[in-house]
Amino acid sequence: MSQDHKSYHDYLLNRSRFSFWIRRFFVQDLVRHFHGQVLDVGCGIGEFLKQYHTSSLGIDINPFAVSYCQQQGLTCCISGAYPLPFADHSFDGVLASNILEHLDSVETAVAEAARVLKSGGILAITVPQEAGFKHDDTHVNLLRQADLAKIAERFNLQPQQSYFYPFRLEWPGKLLYFCELRAVFVKA
Top-level CATH class of 3-187? Predict the structure, then answer.
């Protein structure tokens, strides 16, 4: 198993209590966008899966994270963001939180998310803003609101909401690594 996977898994589990508490608020804001069965792409240690009390499934490339989720009683399997191992129109929602910035092909990941979404389904994307992007050397794509909207449009995803979190302004994201851009789309 890759040492990088083990190190990242250990990092997720060994964050401070304060960090776990703050993450609950970050995740609660995402939960409100969904209904029905949701696919959490890049689920990590299952923070969304634990708070979203409806049918959900997590996937991650990290075998340590998947094993941890399964031990917590969460439905999770090993998979990357593309190709997704699910039939067309399988989910009411797809969450891609803090993964697109790591991928070689953002468009392929969004295309796969759109493919597995039912008509009327929700795709919620979160990406780090500028300070968060610079904070991690595994980030390869700095994505802005216009970038996400342009990509989503190609795959018949209509913008529902786009906002900065936890502050509703863009400028804190230039200074604070935990600031995110959140975009919510509906499949037409």
Answer: alpha beta
pLDDT digit string, tens, across residues 9-20: 888 878 888 877
Give per-residue pLDDT as tens, 154-182.
Answer: 999 999 999 999 999 999 999 999 999 99
- Rounded-to-integer distance, Cα 44 and Cα 65, Å: 5
Sheet containing 117-128, strands listed edge to edge, beginning at the edge strand earlier in sequence: 76-78, 56-60, 38-41, 91-97, 117-128, 180-187, 157-165
CA–CA separation, 112 and 133 (whole Å): 24
**Would you say residue 1 has pLDDT above 50?**
no
48: left (phi over 0), alpha (psi -120 to 50) or beta: alpha
User: How far apart are alpha carbons 92 and 82 in whole angstroms?
Assistant: 18
* Domain locations along the chain: 3-187
